Amino acid sequence: MQLTTVGKAIWQGARKAQELGAAGASDPLVQERLRKLKQVEAFRKHGVSWPEIQALVGISRATY
Predict the structure, then answer these.
(1) Are 53 and 43 in contact (CB under 8 A)?
(2) Three-state helix/strand/coil letters over the chain
(3) CA–CA separation, 34 and 52 (whole Å)
(4) Which of 10, 14, 33, 53 is the most buried (most CB within 10 A)?
């Protein structure tokens, strides 16, 4: 019997896919929320203020 290893990136991707599947990521509402979270993370990375993020994405800091 020969054992093979799976690359770390592939393993992490598979784990993330399982987490998203368990969270119902195929649901359109969940997809929309994930898209908004990614937008907020990108804006925060570039130093955009919360009032601007609220205007652009449509969610409050508390919701985030």
Answers:
(1) yes
(2) CCCCCCCHHHHHHHHHHHHHHHCCCCCHHHHHHHHHHHHHHHHHHCCCCHHHHHHHHCCCCCCC
(3) 19
(4) 53
What is the predicted pLDDT for the residue at 43? 93
Instruction: Name the band, by pLDDT with cuts 50, 70 and 90, for residue 13.
Output: confident
Phi-psi region for residue 30, left (φ > 0), alpha (ψ -120 to 50) or beta?
alpha
List b or e across 23-56, with b for residues whose CB sees 16 or more CB atoms inside 10 angstroms.
eeeeeeeeeeeeebeebbeebeeeebeeeebeee
Place of tokens 């994930």: 34
- CA 3, CA 42: separation in Å to the nearest integer? 40
| Residue with token string 């991707």 | 13
